Amino acid sequence: IFGFMINVSAFLGALTMYIKYLIVKEQNDVTHFVSPCFNLLTLYVGIMGSVGLGIVASFQELAVPAVHDGGALLAFVSGAVYIFLQTVISYKSRPQWSTPCVCHTRLFLSVMTWVAVIPMIACASLISITKIDWNPGEKDYVYHFISAICEWTVAFGFVFFFLTYIRDFQVSMHDYQDGKIH
Predict the structure, then answer these.
(1) Using the 8-state DSSP alphabet, how is residue 174 labeled?
(2) What is the rounded distance in angstroms from the CA atom of residue 81 to the CA atom of residue 158?
């Protein structure tokens, strides 16, 4: 059931990113704050992250570790790149479409995610065995422990970043006048 729920999350994440892409596209038609290609690239990077998450769900860690780990790497790195690119879009869309508070929150979450992604990858690459249950005295336990903490930090960074979309999704296009939210 865990794999199924990860696949559902990957689908909902991709859907959220597509809706955000459409919102930015509509806003950009009014105020021209970002290249349409940049917006599309951001969507593609985000979709790659969702595909990576689907790979993680479809290939169990102990059964096919190389494929599972490749999917995790794709999901985490693409996700971190996606939220960085969306942060850039947020700053470019100020003051018409984003508030300074939202922009700074997204920047904080993006930086926090990158600060966690790098040691997560480094420590995960140093683990020489693939297993589920670890004990503190075992070889590579420290690498596993640090990697797991960073993995959860990144995951929560993604969740909180998506929560910053709430206001964007609440405001419909007929709430816009002269390129500003009223």
Answers:
(1) G
(2) 11
Q: How confident is the model over 130-157, as pLDDT tens digits?
A: 777 888 988 899 999 999 999 999 999 9
* Packing angle of the helix pair 65-92, 2-31 (nearest 10 deg): 20
How far apart, in whole angstroms, are the C-alpha atoms of residue 160 and residue 139? Answer: 34
Residue found by looking up tokens 């596209």 in the block: 25
User: Where does the chain have alpha helices with state H?
Assistant: 2-31, 36-58, 65-92, 100-126, 141-163, 166-170
Average pLDDT over residues 100-110: 97
Contact indicator for 34, 70 with CB cutoff of 8 Å: no
Supply the pTM of this predicted model: 0.89
The closest alpha carbon to 120, from 157, 149, 79, 89, belongs to 149
